[in-house]
Design brief:
The complex is a heterotrimer. Chain A is of the alpha/beta class. Chain A has one domain: Thiamin diphosphate (ThDP)-binding fold, Pyr/PP domains (Rossmann fold), CATH 3.40.50. Helices cover 45% and strands 10% of the residues of chain A. Chain A is built from 12 helices and 7 strands. In chain A, strands 1-2-3-7-6 form a 5-stranded parallel β-sheet, sandwiched between helices. In chain A, helix 2 runs parallel beside helix 9. The longest helix of chain A has 26 residues. Chain A is globular. The longest helix of chain B is centred in the C-terminal third of the chain and has 17 residues. In chain B, helix 6 packs across helix 7 and helix 6 packs across helix 8. Chain C is of the alpha/beta class. Chain C is globular and about 60 Å long. In chain C, the strands form 3 sheets. Chain C has a 7-stranded mixed β-sheet with strand order 3-2-4-5-7-6-12, with helices on both faces. Chain C has a 5-stranded mixed β-sheet with strand order 9-11-10-13-14, with helices on both faces. A two-stranded antiparallel ribbon of chain C has the order 1-8. Classes of the chains: A alpha/beta, B alpha+beta, C alpha/beta. Chains in contact: A-B, A-C, B-C.
Amino acid sequence: MTEQKDRELYRWLRLIREFESRISTLDKQGKLMGGVYSGKGQEAVTVGFCHDLRWDDWIFPLHRDLGAFLVKGADPKRLMAQIFGKRDGFAKGKDSYLHGGDLANGIFGGTSMLGATLPVAAGMAYKFKIRKEDRVAIAFFGEGASSRGDAHEAMNFAGVHRLPVIFVCENNFYAYSTPNELQFGVDNVADRAAGYGFKGEVVNGNDLHSVMKTAQRAIERARKGDGPTLVECKTYRYHGHSEHDRADYRSEEEVITWESRDPIFLWEIYLEKRKYDIAAIKKETSEEVTRIVEEAVAFADASPSPDGPEAMGDLYAMPIDTEAP
Amino acid sequence: MLVDVVMPQLGESVVEGVVVKWLVEVGELVAKDQPLLEISTDKVDAEIPSPTAGRVAQILAKPGETIPIQGVLAKIETDQGVVVPAPTAAPRWDEETEGFPGHMARKTEPPIPAPPRVEPSAPAPPPPPEAGRIRITPVVARMAAEHGLDLSRIPGTGIDGRVTRKDVEEYLASGQAAAAAPAEARPGPPPAPAKAPAAPPRKAARAPKAALAEGDRVVPWTPIRKKIAEHMVRSKHTSPHVHIFAEVDMHRVALLRANAKKEGMNFTYLPYVIQASAKALRELPAMNATVDDESTILRKDIHISVAVDTEKGLLVPVLRHADRISLKEISAAMDDFGARAKAGKISPDELSGGTFSITNPGSKGNLFGTPIINQPQVGILRLGQVVKRPVVIDVAGEDSIVIRPMMFLCCAYDHRVIDGVAGNGFLYRVREILEAGEFS
Amino acid sequence: MLVTYIEAIRQAMDEEMERDGNVLLMGEDVGVLGGAFKASVGLQEKHGPDRVVDMPISESLIVGAGIGLAVQGMRPILEMQFIDFISCGFDQIVNTAATLRYRHGGQTACPIVIRGPSGGGVHGGLYHSQNPEAWFCHVPGLKVVAPATAYDAKGLLKAAIRDDDPVIYFEHKFLYRRIKEEIPAEEFVVPIGKAALRKEGRDLTVITYGSPVHAVMKAARDMAAEVDIEVIDLRTLLPIDWATVKGSVRKTGKALIVHEARLTGGIGGEVAARIAQECFEDLDGPVMRLGSRDVHTPFAPSMEEYVLPNQEKITEAIRKLAAY
């Protein structure tokens, strides 16, 4: 890879980290309402899978995949306004966080019903297939969502039609408080791929190189019409399920162990070994991501709150009259 | 400028938090995002970062204190220079932003076609209320029927001057209603006093509260039954009834009936009593009256309401101008009423406008009974059973015992309006006519 | 003792698990975590992991598995982490549980309780604010309850657990920690199918349930000088206590139904229809309803306020009906 690309990837990792840290702080400062689901620690997965996508590919991020929004092309300002519930957010304030997608950039917003996006991604991939478009759809989901019938149903259909879809399972070991051993009986979620008739791969989700290599293979497979892939990225979230979760269900030792495998930290070591000017890169990147995030916060703060009656908009193509006098 | 440090809402159900300890003191300089204090909620412990750089001006909550979400914990005095001025123009996001270096190259064609933008339309204003139409609610309609009220007399306090239930209750309580005449008593075209057959079905019967034994049958009131019940109760409440009795020798009438039969006319006793009553009413008009508010209206025409029993209940069609028609016509009208009442073909118009009532329970009517006045009339006559009885009469100056068809007539009159002399005089006159056989 | 609404729920589960060894709790994060809202704190420690079961993320599984346990004579309490997720278990509820007794000719019972946090007003957005009770009131074979007080939360949950039919128990998350109430220390049960007359009045009946009960009660107090309001808290939505509803409306002649759920297709429509049909001749005004506007419950506070019923809208509706 070129130095430029290496640095770019670093900036994405750092931007996501800065963006999410700022959101956590804003939440504790009483500036945000609603749930905040930090993906801090999982940045390599979204960067690795989204960076080499084309603009006309589609992604289906879940509640912790804020990074996927940014890398796929969502404007940081609008994303912050979305999280603030303001008029300039993708949902224009109608819902917060990642429920409002940025469809113009191929980002589909998910619901809270985890796994529900997987059949949608499969359906979209079916369209790519029958219209002979070399596009791909990537559905992100947690290992918890893998227990939903929707996940099984989507993968089954994708296997039947060998669809250009990639199922990316971010296994961060806890679904809220529920550990892997109470979630599934297999060793790896990816082991299930065999049951659907396509390839499953397990990858270290904190290692950006590994993620990117696996992602590139899966994307190429899909584009060529060789069918879906189920990729399981083993990773870790540093925060609780949400900002109001103490996460007492895991040990301090475990958290520290994972912090020592931090994806950004690992990438910095890589940059250093490549003998780039790491001090300059760090300084430059810090300034850049801080500026972008601060601009996003200022924008979101100043963005108007929607007026009450705006709640009635965007419900139908043509508004229907449900409140006739 | 003072900036508030507030209690955040950490979790959907969280309503308050407890201050655990302060990490800074009043007067201390703090950086933006520097932890100021520790809080604890039902769900989480957290350090609260400073919203801005500045000096801690006030600490408003002590450790251990419970503060509601968005409650102010402290105030930070900011350096004026730090404050970012509010943007003068409305913020815009850059439609074509590259966001960040390395942003993937856009194609000219978007991943999806832009959805059409549709502006919600403003709802049309409601149409203005129809002018001149009296609007009432169901309960007011019911109460008006029950109490025979003219709603146009009751001032309405509801929306658009509607008469409300409360208005009716107050009107009734004020005593005006007790003296008020029913609508049909007012001069002008006679409205229906007993619209029962044409009335829409009323509310479903309430389940009886009484305990039921096996084989007991619950018969819910039909609309006509309810109408009768309401009418009877109202009449008893409204009029002080006086019942007087006359024992009438129907000997002459019996002879006349026998003669008529020879001519092929089959009359019952009833047409004779109707004609006798009509004649008496013409001579003594006090009883041919209706009550309206605090007035008695002495009616010019004699229209006699005659009770007809049907399977569904009692109907009271009106025989108009009873004093001007022959026995034959009266008899024919009675047969017609009977047949049409059974077939349910009496029109509401035929039930209204009566000025006096007669009820004949028929051959099984027993010795006598005390009828209830048909409001707003003031009198009613009831026929008892005609029975042969030994009676003492004067035969050529001598008391003699003979067998005669005898009948008790009971007359009820409204003592509000009719005094004893008038009431007794009327019944006495009816008896005289019947006994003398003065018929046309 | 003084308890919050959510503590009342916890106590009911705890006491019932203690009373009856066949009662168990299944749901996402109900064990070690003690529930996303802490409704089951300490229960796994006390009753063991076999009876307080952390389930995979699969509402269809949670309900379906609960039915299997129930047929074996167990009495499972099945928690939906948010009641919004009940739609993921919809098929098992309406097609397996609700029909179980019926299609087996009465051979078996289905004593399950499905409970979870419903309701808005907490800036929860589209998937953490829903009030889907009306969906289930359309399904014969189910019972549906929605307590508004800590007393009812405890008493109705106990009744639901002891009931031999599937009961859907809607708890309102807005009330979880906002309601603190004295409840008896001794055992009590609130029967399913009985409404509560919260306040007597002569002029107008407000029929409500869940979170709006409190706003309606406040309105009744605040407006006492202008209108004498009777307040009925339905508590049970299937079957509705028609005798109480109709008795009150026959007395006052005016009815307003208030619920947080959306207006169109909501419980209020059913209540209004029955009143219109069966109390017609006692009505002294139109039967009125107040519910959420016919749109999803949006996130932004300004819009949420616009969409949900609130104190102001309740006062306005009462005033409008009272003036009739």
